Each structure stands twice: as C-alpha cells, then as structure tokens.
C-alpha cells in the first residue's frame, strides 16, 4: 500500500466520501488509488474554483467535509476565491493540494511556489505531509480539524514522493469524538438580561444558528423578549419558508443596515460577527453598531451556539407554550402572459413554483431583490448565499449541494456576470446527472458595480468607465453555452415563457438552465 492509498482509505474511514478534483502530474498516484481503495466518490471539475466551491456546497448541506484535489500552487490559487467563501461560511472542508516530490523542490521547477503561504490565507489548519508512515494520522487530524466547531478549511499538502512511497498496512486510526465547548453560564445570563431589560434589543444569529434547533430557539427568544431577530447578511445556510421562524437578514447596503439597527441599546451576537459595512464609503462609518449600543457576544470560537441558544431560551421563555413567529403558507400567483420579463416577475414565479425541500443557491445579486419576499411563504427550503462576497460561487455550490442531497431539487439563482467565473460547473452537473435547475439573470451588465460606482462617489462615469461594467458586444448566449456542456437550456423573454420554462425544468430530473433576459435594476 502506498501513501495515496493510505490517504484515501483514512479519509473515507473518517467519513469523507466525496472528492471534487482537478488533478495534475503530482497527484497521479492519488488518482490511481481511487480504483484500488473503495469508499471515495470522485467528481471531475474542469476548473479548480468549481472543485473548491462544490466542496463548500457539499459541506454546508451534508454537515461533514468533502475533499478537494488540487494541483500545486497554481491549482490552489485558481480555487482560492471559493476557499475564501468556504472559510467565511465556516464550512468543514479537507483541501488536499499536491506538491513536487520533497527532493525536487530545491530545483525550483517552473511550477514551484510557496503553497503553504497561499493555503494559510484560507485555512484554519495546515499541514505538510512528510512521511507516508504518518499520512493516515495526518488525514484523520485534517478531518478532525475541519469538523471542529464552527467548521473550517483544513489543508493537507501532499508531496508526490510521500504519495507514491510505501506506507504501513495497519487499520486506519479512528476519528476522535468531536469536542463540544459550551458558553459560560454567566455569559448566557448577561445576554438574557440584555434582551429582557426593557431597552431596545436585537439578537443577531449566524452559522449553525440559522437552521434547525438553533433557529427555533432564536425564534422563541425573540417572541418572549420582544427583541428583533436578525441574521447575518449572507448566511451559509438559512432555513426558511412556511412554518419556519421568521428571521430578517441584515441588509447588504450599509445605509439600509444602519436603519435596521438604529435605536438599539443592546445587540446579542449568536454565531455572527459584529456588523460592519462591506466596503468603506466616503463620509460613512464602517462599524454599523449604533452609538450607545452595547454588543454582547453569546459564543466565541468553538463554543456551541446551539446549546447556548437553548440555555438562553430557557432563561427568557417557557418553551412548552411559546412559539416563534412563522410565516403562513402563501404563494404569489405565477406570472403569465406576454409582458416583458423582469427580475420581479422571476421572483414571483420562483415563489409560485418552488418545490418543498428545495435547496436554493442565491447568487442573483441585484436581480434578487424581490426573491426573499416572494418565497417567504413557500414550502420549507434551505437558502445558501455568497458568504465571502467573492463571486463565482453559485454554480459550484449548487453542484456540491446536489451531490450532498440526492433526491432534493437544487435551484441556482445566478447573475450573468458571476456565472461566467465558474460556468464549467454545468459540465460536472451534466456528467454526474445532478438535479440542479439554474436560472441565469441575463441583464448584460455588472449591475452591482454600476450601483457601487455611484455609491463610492466616483466621478461621473464616461463611456470608457462604463464599458468595463457592460457585458454586451457581444451578448452572452447562455443557452448555447449550457447546451455545449451537456445541459438542456432555454431562453425566456416574457413572464409567461419563464413560468412555463420553470415548470418544465423543476419537473425534469437532471440539470437544466433557463436564461432569463431581464433589464438591469436601476
């Protein structure tokens, strides 16, 4: 047994069942070992950013890590943006990066680079394997690090000679039990006092607190205390829909978020960071916490936010009787007719047609303004967002989510500019037969940057400036692009055409794409 076989066997034994890869020469022994060692599904991705984004989507939905397989420093660099998003999502992810043989590195071959420095920028745990005899332990410790609350990217650098050299044949080590750290009672008591003291207060949740028992406990706390319930702007995974506790997302625009938080005297953070604006703007503060508002941190680091919210709920609410506010089942009417298609009409169609238990991946950007309201009363579903702000996440995350959740429909709502970053994900969806329906909002512009051009106070934009934000000349043909990668596709220009296309796509197994031709917002 060689090192690569030991690595795959140990990862699989520790619960890593899927590898999204784009390998090269240094990883060929890992590739060969896939046929020798059972238990690992491998999915080829035609760009490293698809592999890392797919591993992110898988981890968000499965609650356990997938592996990546990347080729040296340049391959890691190509996947870096979606590793950044995964880091911000606290996704459990084992990132395997091949490297030159240990004795070859001194020769400074053309692909030589400082892998450790690049990996360190997105990894909560980083190790360079040095001995095939300890590779099994390295693998298990990578999985343990990735799954440590609240979740992180664990990168294992695998030199080629460590991969091809002989390794011991003993049984793989067991994965140690997950260590759970709880918030101190005094911290919970201070949070309870802040929420029930009679002054304006809000509970801001993030991470695991936006789903499951954490979200239900947060809803009970808000109902009992009268505090506002907010979640971070871009939650990794938000449960929502009819019967699910209502949580208001903090606005992306700093001016709107400031309005949401205005007047608060207490802000309790549960799995979320203290709110700041995404960028600096002339004359506007970056820290969004209002003057005179005290921030209370319920959990820190690896402390369990679910148990902390449960304890907080016990202190402020009678959980046997009090129920969180939830939306009633209600859908908008599906738009019909020959009216020109708009982003608002797309949102209403999505709200009307969304199947129960759908995983929605949202990278619609400016075109998605109407989506939250139109889908609030739809059947329960999961909503995955652009956690780190690095565009090109949607299609890969949808791919990984579909692998993690066979039997569930995945709906990817994708801006056209963002789609072009990682369009190769469609090919992987076709090859793997994944149930992903993609809607591309084709407004032929980087509309969000047109908005930001005004917000930062830049000088009036002339034709050369605006040309850098325009996606026409030529127009992108997403129908042809999708079909060229094996994904059925059609184009909708009217409300009725989109509704009909949505019904067909959501009913058909396998991947499909709808190009929704809409005007830019604003």
Automatic annotation (TrEMBL):
Residue ranges annotated for the Thiamine pyrophosphate enzyme TPP-binding domain, each copy included: 378-515
Family affiliation: Belongs to the TPP enzyme family.
Keywords for this protein: Thiamine pyrophosphate
Organism expressing this protein natively: Streptantibioticus parmotrematis
One Pfam short name: TPP_enzyme_C
Protein name in UniProt: Acetolactate synthase large subunit
Domain Thiamine pyrophosphate enzyme N-terminal TPP-binding: 1-106
PANTHER family recorded: ACETOLACTATE SYNTHASE LARGE SUBUNIT ILVX-RELATED, THIAMINE PYROPHOSPHATE ENZYMES
InterPro entries, per the entry: THDP-binding, Thiamin_PyroP_enz_TPP-bd_dom, TPP_enz, TPP_enzyme_TPP-bd
Domain of life: Bacteria
């Amino acid at each position: 047994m060689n090192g690569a076989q030991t690595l795959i066997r140990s990862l699989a034994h520790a619960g890593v069942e899927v590898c999204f890869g784009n390998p090269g020469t240094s990883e060929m022994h890992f590739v060969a070992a896939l046929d020798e060692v059972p238990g690992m599904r491998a999915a080829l991705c035609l760009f490293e950013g698809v592999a890392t984004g797919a591993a992110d989507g898988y981890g968000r939905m499965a609650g356990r890590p997938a592996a990546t397989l990347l080729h040296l420093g340049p391959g890691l660099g190509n996947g870096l943006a979606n590793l950044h998003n995964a880091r911000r999502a606290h996704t459990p992810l084992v990132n395997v990066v091949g490297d030159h043989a240990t004795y070859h590195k001194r020769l400074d071959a053309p692909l030589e680079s400082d892998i450790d420095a690049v990996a360190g920028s997105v990894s909560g745990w980083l190790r360079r394997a040095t001995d095939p005899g300890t590779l099994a332990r390295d693998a298990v410790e990578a999985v343990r690090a990735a799954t440590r609350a609240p979740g992180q990217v664990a990168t294992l650098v695998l030199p080629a000679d460590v991969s091809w050299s002989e390794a011991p044949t003993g049984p793989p080590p067991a994965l140690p039990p997950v260590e759970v750290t709880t918030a101190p009672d005094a911290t919970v008591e201070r949070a309870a006092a802040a929420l029930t003291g009679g002054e304006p207060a809000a509970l801001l949740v993030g991470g695991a607190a936006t789903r499951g028992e954490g979200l239900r406990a947060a809803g009970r706390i808000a109902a009992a205390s009268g505090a506002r319930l907010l979640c971070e702007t871009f939650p990794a995974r938000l449960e929502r829909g009819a019967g699910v506790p209502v949580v208001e997302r903090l606005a992306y625009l700093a001016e709107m978020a400031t309005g949401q938080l205005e007047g608060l005297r207490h802000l309790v953070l549960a799995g979320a960071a203290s709110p700041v604006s995404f960028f600096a703007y002339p004359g506007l503060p970056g820290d969004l916490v209002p003057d005179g508002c005290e921030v209370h941190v319920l959990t820190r680091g690896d402390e369990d936010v679910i148990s902390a919210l449960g304890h907080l709920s016990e202190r402020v609410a009678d959980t046997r009787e009090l129920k969180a506010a939830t939306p009633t089942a209600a859908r908008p009417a599906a738009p019909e007719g020959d009216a020109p298609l708009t982003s608002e009409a797309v949102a209403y169609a999505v709200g009307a047609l969304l199947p129960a238990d759908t995983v929605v991946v949202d990278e619609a950007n400016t075109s998605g303004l109407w989506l939250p309201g139109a889908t609030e009363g739809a059947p329960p579903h999961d909503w995955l967002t652009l956690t780190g702000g690095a565009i090109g996440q949607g299609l890969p995350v949808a791919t990984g989510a579909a692998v993690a959740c066979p039997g569930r429909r995945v709906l990817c709502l994708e801006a056209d500019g963002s789609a072009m970053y990682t369009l190769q994900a469609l090919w992987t969806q076709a090859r793997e037969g994944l149930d992903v329906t993609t809607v591309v909002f084709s407004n032929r512009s980087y509309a969000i940057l047109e908005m930001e051009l005004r917000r930062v106070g830049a000088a009036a934009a002339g034709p050369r400036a605006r040309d850098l934000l325009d996606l026409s000349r030529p127009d992108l043909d997403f129908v042809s692009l999708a079909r060229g990668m094996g994904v059925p596709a059609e184009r909708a220009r009217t409300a009725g055409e989109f509704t009909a296309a949505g019904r067909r796509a959501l009913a058909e197994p396998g991947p499909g794409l709808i190009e929704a031709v809409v005007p830019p917002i604003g």
